[in-house]
Amino acid sequence: MKLSTRGRYGLRAMLDLAIHYDEGYIPLRHIAERQDISEGYLEQVFAMLKKEGLVKSARGAQGGYKLSDRPENITVGMILRTLEGSLAPVDCIAESNPTTCSRYDRCVTKLIWEMMRDSINDVVDSMNLKHLVLEYENIDSNR
Fold this sequence. Notes:
By secondary structure, the protein is mainly α. The chain is 52% helix and 6% strand.
């Protein structure tokens, strides 16, 4: 499984909001500059995150985006599934995909794919933005 740019950049942008959580609404251009990501691309990413209720937005001079909840309540899994869809390595075992494979009931390799899916979901659901902020602060203090 390989994450798209949307998933990787979206997670970085959400981490940026978590790092600056106490500052209120953050202009998208500030996130784009700090993360070296196109502002236009981030607009598309944040539209998806807003639709899913992971961020809030405000217009005007003091506008921008902020997390819709505290960093410890937003998991990496929530963000990645919003931006990437299912994290399953193959379509036949995706949570949102009804099985259409004629071999599904007798597929031996399905067990491997299910274990991979479950392991990936366990990891991304056990990590939240607060964990990443703490890691960022640890790395930043060692510079």
